Amino acid sequence: MIKVLVAEDMHVVRAGLAEILDGQLGIEVAGQAADGPSALEAALRHGPDVAVLDIDLPGLDGISVAARLRERLPACRCLMLTALDRPGLLRRALDAGAAGYLLKTATPGELASAVRTVAAGGRAVDPRLAEQSSELGENPLTAREAEVLRLSAGGAGAREIAAELFLGVGTVRNRISSAVGKLHARTLVDAVRIAERNGWI
Q: Which end of the chain is more exposed for a tag (fewer CB within 10 A), N or C?
């Protein structure tokens, strides 16, 4: 029996996923969670074989949950289930230790098959996204540049970002300028748009 944890913030979607998976031969939903911290806690409590994680979980996003589970519960394999079809996010998820990446447009049969593949030690990735990811190229941003762009996307100015990251305002401006240049963007807004579209932030 494959024990599964389902982490999804939308109650109706989470209940539907749990019902679909519980109805599959050899799969049992051992726990559910509505946010990132709860998903981590539930995984450590129930010890599932597979954690099905939404990327946009509140409190702690699904990619961060996958990274922490890789360290704290390596026997639990993670399958990202998301509406976000961005190749850069796929790469980030796999780098964080996720064994699968499926879109929410998948059929119940495809979801169950992905859970079984991941539980057996394989990798299950949406084929169209995998192809786009191979064409995309590497993320040119450093972790700090990506963080600065992420905070800028939320409306923070250079002074706020500097305070948040414990950096000088000049350093923040240099990182913004570097990110804009690396992405061949005209403005900061353009750089944020490019990075978001590719799933780099």
A: N
**CATH assignment of the domain containing 156:** 1.10.10.10
Identify the domain containing residue 119 by its residue range. Answer: 2-135
- Same domain for 55 and 150, yes or no, is no
65 Cβ contact list (under 8 Å, min separation 6): 7, 36, 39, 40, 43, 51, 53, 57, 78
79 and 151 inside one domain? no
> What mean pLDDT is reported for the chain?
89
Work out how many domains the chain is built from and give that number: 2
pLDDT digits (tens, 9 = 90+) for 103-143: 999 999 999 999 999 999 998 888 777 665 554 567 788 88
* Buried-state track 42-68, b at ≥16 Cβ within 10 A, e below 16: bbeebebbbbbbbbebeebbbbbbbbb
Q: Are residues 40 and 127 in the same domain?
A: yes
